[in-house]
TrEMBL record:
This is Expansin-like B1 isoform X2. Pfam families: DPBB_1, Expansin_C. SUPFAM superfamilies: Barwin-like endoglucanases (SSF50685), PHL pollen allergen (SSF49590). Residues 49-153 form the Expansin-like EG45 domain. The lineage of its organism: Eukaryota, Viridiplantae, Streptophyta, Embryophyta, Tracheophyta. The gene is LOC107430440. InterPro entries: Expan_Lol_pI, Expansin/allergen_DPBB_dom, Expansin_CBD, Expansin_CBD_sf, RlpA-like_DPBB, RlpA-like_sf.
């Protein structure tokens, strides 16, 4: 009798236990991923001008600790994302590694990252170990996404040099903090609040061939891997009569 009752309850008990166990397919946002990294030999320790549209600014962002990415470039969505990268050879490599910002697209010999020479060297424990890493050229690494941080900086809008007031507007968004991606941008008239969705021209460059008139508000959609989305509305607007090459402070920053 007891044996029969246990047999009937066993499937239910197993089912309930399976519901409480973590799913094997769940994504660990804090886990390291195994890969390989190289570096730019001719980077002057500051990276390269970029497929993200950052120009020479991209070589100095984050103190020059920058990187090109292959799959992580994600058709430009990955521009500005930050990653902790550390090499795995315990003879040379520190456990901390280096935090880099994606500013370019590129790959070399099945690598996920091509670091600036400066960033590549910072993965090492000592200056001598850095020289040894550089001599290897390509090393095994592990990486994970981390939050970008720019203390005392607001998000800024840099008007591209190719913009032509009032007929064509292109700009790059700089200094985005946090771990979310900018996946959409709206440009709104500040008087009647009519908005238009902009095109991602390439990398982090957003464009429109028919910009609205008057002061302009740039709304940014921040999207996370968990599906969460947040629209950010800046305090400051792009002024009426904006100029190519100018940089405008949004007056806001994110910590998401």
């Amino acid at each position: 009798m007891a044996s029969s009752l246990w047999s009937s309850l066993l499937p239910t008990a197993i089912f309930l236990l399976m519901q409480t166990l973590p799913k094997a397919s769940s994504v660990c946002s804090d886990c390291f991923i195994q890969s390989r990294a190289a570096y730019y030999p001719n980077s002057n320790e500051k990276g390269t001008e970029s497929a993200c549209g950052f120009g020479s600014f991209g070589a100095t962002l984050n103190g020059g600790d920058v990187s090109a990415a292959s799959d992580l470039y994600r058709n430009g969505v990955g521009c500005g994302a930050c990653y902790q990268v550390r090499c795995t050879n315990s003879a040379y490599c520190s456990s901390k590694g280096v935090n880099v910002v994606i500013t370019d697209q590129g790959s070399s010999a099945r690598t996920d990252f091509i670091l600036s020479k400066r960033a590549f060297s910072k993965m090492a424990q000592t200056a001598n170990a850095a020289a040894s890493l550089l001599s290897l050229g390509i090393v095994d690494i592990e990486y994970r996404r981390v939050s970008c941080s720019y203390p005392n900086k607001n998000i800024t809008i840099k008007i591209d040099e190719n913009s032509n007031f009032p007929h064509y507007l292109a700009f790059v968004i700089r200094y985005q903090q946090g771990m979310k991606d900018i996946t959409a941008v709206q440009l709104c008239e500040t008087q009647n609040f009519v908005c238009k969705l902009l095109d991602r021209h390439y990398g982090a460059v957003w464009t429109t061939t028919t910009p609205p008139s008057g002061p302009l508000q740039v709304k940014m959609l921040f999207s996370g891997d968990d599906g969460d989305e947040t629209w950010l509305v800046p305090v400051n607007n792009i002024p009426e009569g904006w100029k190519a090459g100018e940089t405008y402070d949004s007056g806001v920053q994110v910590n998401i």
